[in-house]
Amino acid sequence: MNRALCILTAAAAAAALNTQAAEPASGIAAAFGNTVMSVYPDGRSQKIWLQPDGSWTGRSRRGTPLAGKWTMKGEKVCLRQSKPRILLAISYCQAFPADPEIGVDAKDLAGTPIHLKLVKGHVETSAG
User: Fold this and answer.
1) What's the pLDDT tens digit per position in 42-57?
2) pTM for the whole structure
3) Given the DSSP bridges, would you call strands 113-119 and 104-107 parallel, antiparallel or unpaired?
4) pLDDT at 18
5) How many CA within 13 A on the CB side of residue 51?
6) Domain 3-119 indexed as CATH 2.40.128
7) What is the DSSP string of 47-86?
């Protein structure tokens, strides 16, 4: 998975939370301490963990450590990746339904279908 795709997939997952970093609303608060998981058609998953201070960390489908900042842009959650460092400083934004527990079907930057869901706890390993 290329680095740009990692950030965009993570952003899509975070977008399911629909809130602001400065004043976390109840939707995003559900993500704090839990795992936002992007499940791919091959069964592998990418995981991210959002913090109330606007930072996020995660693991790509291949286990590469990820990190960055999340913000809001209108009704969309946007992620900007800082680890691993990428050449293009891209922010990827996406809006999702207010209830992340239901999950939602979406696409990553490359157009690959993914299923986004919120999983209780800090999940490091799971096929989704």
Assistant:
1) 999 999 998 999 999 9
2) 0.73
3) antiparallel
4) 39
5) 9
6) yes
7) EEEE-TTSEEEEE-TT--EEEEEEEEETTEEEEEEEES--
